[in-house]
Design brief:
The protein has 565 residues and is an alpha+beta fold. Strands 1-6-5-4-7-3-2-8-9 form a nine-stranded mixed beta sheet. Helix 1 packs across helix 5. The chain starts with a strand and ends with a helix. It is 34% helix and 20% strand. The structure holds adenosine-5'-diphosphate and magnesium ion. The site of adenosine-5'-diphosphate (ADP) has 17 residues, from helix 2.
C-alpha cells in the first residue's frame, strides 16, 4: 500500500456513528440491507455511465453482488462490480455527510435509545451502519475508469486510514470484521435469510458461494474435487416490472426502504403500468414519516427515474409538484431517451404530461388512504403542512387537494387537525352559505379570539387555522363544494340567511341609537383606524379590531414585515 494517510471523520460523522451504534443495536441486522442497497446503486450507476462509454464494462459485463463470510475470521464481505469509487470519492462519501441540515438534525438526538432510533431512521442509516456489527471495516474499491484501487480502513472511532492499493477488478468490496457479540452473522443460513428478507427485490443478482464436490457411486463426496458454485439468492428482477398480483406487501415495503433510503415502512403505495401514447410504469409511495430535510431548500425530493429499466437519475424532481415532494418511488419510462439529463427533462413536453398524470395518481393514492382515518391522520400530521402548499402551486387540482385537507375547528375544539371540509359542510346550519374560518398565530389564539363569540352563540362552526402556511393557503382557496370561504376577522360580517329579519332590524336600530358614540370613538382614534362601526360580532368583549375585506391578514403582514417590506 502506498500514499497512506490517516484522516479524521467530519464531526457530524463522529456524532452519528456514536449515536447509531448505541440506538440501533436491536435493529442491527439492517447493516446487510444497507451494504446491498449501496452495491445495487453502484451497479445502477455503472450501467448509466456505460451508456456513453461501453468500455467501462471491460470484459466483465455481468453485474452482480457477492456475499461471503468466514466463520473463523469472523468476517462478512459484500462485494460488487459496480462503479467503484476514486480516492476523492472515498474520502467524501465515507468520511463526511453532505446532506444539508445535518448539524441541526443531530442536535435533536437525545441519547434516549428508542427516540433516537426513530430519528436516525428518518435520517437514513446507510454505510455507517456497518459499525453497528463491526469493530473494523475495510473497503477496497476501484472506480470503473481508474487503474488504481483504494483501501479505506476504520474502527469507527474518529478516524480512517486511506491508501492506494492494487485491485484487479472494478467495484467495491467491503469487509466487516464482526464484533465479538455479532459473530452470529458469519453464518450461511443467517445471511441467506437476511438477503431474502431485505433484498429480494434488488434487481442485480445477489450471490453466495456454495462448495460442491463430485460424488462417487455411493453418493459420497470425493475428496479433492471441491469447487465453489455461486448461487443467486434473491429474486433479481426489477420489482416494478413484475405483475402486481405476484408482489407481496413485504416485498413492496422492502423495496421502498431501498429506493427511499428510509428505515421504516411506507404508509401506502400505488403501482401502475400505463400503456398508450406514453408508456411508463410508476410505483409511488407515501412514507411513514417526514424525512429530516423536508423543509430544506435542497432536501432530497422526487422519484427515481429509469428508462427501460436503466437507472438514470436519483431524485428526479420534474415528475411531481413541490407540494408532493414527500412522495417517493420509481418511474420507468419507455419513451424518454437514455441520454436524458436533468436539463433535458425540464424541456421535455412528455415529462409534463407524465407529471400531471403522476400528480393525479398521487392525489388519488392519498384519497384512498383517507378512507382509513387513523392512518390518514398520521400522514396528515407528518405532511399536512406540505400538502397545504398545493392550492397555490397547482390551481388545476385545487378541488382534489381541498378534499384532502384537514383542520382544527370549533366543533372539536382540539388542536389536532382532523376535520375535512366535507365534515364541515355536513354540519352547516340551515341557511348558512359560507365556510367560516379564522387565522391566528397559534391554536389558543385562534380558539379564544373575540371574533368567534357570535359564532359560538349561534352554534356556527369556524375553522381554526393556526399553521404558518394557513393564510397563504386561504388566499388560494376561494370555495369548496360551491361554498365561499369567509374570514371572520375581515370586513362586514354577513351571516347570510342564518339571521332572521327581526334580528337584522334590531341590529339596525342599535346602530342608529349608537351613532353618537361611534362618532366620538372615531374622533378619539383619528388616523389609527379606517372606520368605526357597531357590530354584532361580539357578545362578551366590548370591542375588537377588524381588517377590511381585502386587506392583508395579520399573519401575512408579519411575514412581510419580517422580510423587511
Ligand atoms: P446513500 O446510499 O443514502 O447515498 P450511504 O451512507 O449508504 O448513503 O452511502 C454513502 C455513499 O457512499 C453513497 O452515496 C455512495 O456514493 C458511496 N458508496 C457506498 N457504498 C458504495 C459501493 N458499494 N460502491 C460505490 N459507492 C458506494
Ligand atoms: Mg445507502
Amino acid at each position: 500500500a502506498t500514499h497512506e494517510e490517516t484522516l479524521g471523520f467530519q464531526t457530524e460523522v463522529k456524532q452519528l456513528l456514536h449515536l447509531m451504534i448505541h440506538s440501533l443495536y436491536s435493529n442491527r441486522e439492517i447493516f446487510l440491507r444497507e451494504m446491498i442497497s449501496n452495491a445495487a446503486d453502484a451497479c445502477d450507476k455503472l450501467r448509466y455511465e456505460a451508456l456513453d462509454n461501453d468500455a467501462l464494462y471491460g470484459d466483465d459485463s455481468d453485474l452482480r453482488i457477492e456475499i461471503e463470510h468466514d466463520t473463523d475470521a469472523g468476517t462478512v464481505t459484500v462485494r460488487d462490480n459496480g462503479i467503484g469509487m476514486s480516492r476523492d470519492e472515498v474520502i467524501r462519501n465515507l468520511g463526511t455527510i453532505a446532506k444539508s441540515g445535518t448539524a441541526e438534525f443531530l442536535k435533536q438526538l437525545s441519547g434516549e435509545q428508542q427516540k433516537d432510533a426513530k430519528l436516525i431512521g428518518q435520517f437514513g442509516v446507510g454505510f455507517y451502519s456497518g459499525f453497528i456489527v463491526a469493530d473494523e471495516v475495510t473497503v477496497r474499491t476501484r472506480r470503473a475508469d481508474a487503474d488504481e484501487g483504494v483501501e479505506w480502513r476504520s474502527r469507527g472511532e474518529g478516524e480512517f486510514t486511506i491508501a492506494d492499493v492494487d485491485k484487479p477488478g472494478r467495484g467495491t468490496e467491503i469487509v466487516l470484521h464482526l464484533k465479538q457479540d455479532a459473530k452470529e452473522f458469519a453464518d450461511d443460513f443467517r445471511l441467506k435469510n437476511l438477503v431474502r428478507k431485505y433484498s429480494d427485490h434488488i434487481e442485480v443478482p445477489v450471490r453466495m458461494p456454495r462448495v460442491e464436490t463430485d460424488k462417487d457411486d455411493e453418493g459420497k463426496p470425493i475428496e479433492g474435487t471441491e469447487k465453489t458454485v455461486w448461487e443467486t439468492v434473491n429474486e433479481a428482477t426489477a420489482l416494478w416490472v413484475r405483475p402486481k398480483s405476484e408482489i407481496s406487501d413485504d416485498e413492496y415495503k422492502a423495496f421502498y426502504k431501498h429506493v427511499a433510503h428510509d428505515f421504516s415502512d411506507p404508509l401506502t403505495w400505488s403501482h401502475n403500468k400505463v400503456e398508450g401514447k406514453l408508456e411508463y410504469t410508476s410505483l409511488l409511495y407515501v412514507p411513514g414519516r417526514a424525512p429530516f430535510d423536508l423543509y430544506e431548500r435542497d432536501g432530497a425530493r422526487g422519484v427515481r427515474l429509469y428508462v427501460q429499466r436503466v437507472f438514470i437519475l436519483e431524485d428526479a424532481e420534474q415528475f411531481l409538484p413541490l407540494y408532493l415532494r414527500f412522495v417517493k418511488g420509481v418511474v420507468d419510462s419507455k419513451d424518454l431517451s437514455l441520454n436524458v439529463s436533468r436539463e433535458l427533462l425540464q424541456q421535455d413536453p412528455q415529462v409534463d404530461k407524465m407529471k400531471s398524470a403522476l400528480t393525479k395518481r398521487a392525489l388519488d393514492m392519498l384519497k384512498k388512504l383517507a378512507k382509513d382515518k387513523e392512518t390518514y391522520q398520521s400522514f396528515w400530521n407528518s405532511f399536512g403542512s406540505v400538502l397545504k402548499e398545493g392550492p397555490a402551486e397547482d390551481y388545476a387540482n385545487r378541488e382534489r387537494i381541498s378534499e384532502l385537507l384537514r383542520f382544527s375547528t370549533t366543533h372539536t375544539e382540539s388542536a389536532t387537525q382532523d376535520q375535512s371540509l366535507a365534515d364541515y359542510v355536513g354540519r352547516m346550519k340551515e341557511g348558512q352559505q359560507k365556510i367560516y374560518y379564522i387565522v391566528a398565530d397559534g391554536f389558543n389564539a385562534a380558539k379564544h379570539s373575540p371574533h368567534l363569540e357570535i359564532f359560538r352563540k349561534k352554534g356556527i362552526e369556524v375553522l381554526l387555522l393556526h399553521d404558518r402556511i394557513d393564510e397563504w393557503l386561504m388566499s388560494h382557496l376561494t370555495e369548496y363544494d360551491g361554498k365561499a370561504f369567509a374570514d371572520v376577522a375581515k370586513g362586514d360580517l354577513d351571516l347570510g340567511d342564518i339571521e332572521g329579519e327581526e334580528e337584522k332590524q334590531a341590529q339596525e336600530e342599535t346602530a342608529k341609537a349608537k351613532e353618537e358614540l361611534v362618532k366620538r370613538v372615531k374622533e378619539a382614534l383619528g388616523d389609527e383606524v379606517q372606520e368605526v362601526r357597531v357590530t354584532h360580532r361580539l357578545t362578551d368583549s366590548p370591542a375588537c379590531v377588524v381588517l377590511s375585506e381585502h386587506e392583508m391578514g395579520f399573519q401575512m403582514r408579519r411575514i412581510m414585515e419580517a422580510a423587511g417590506q
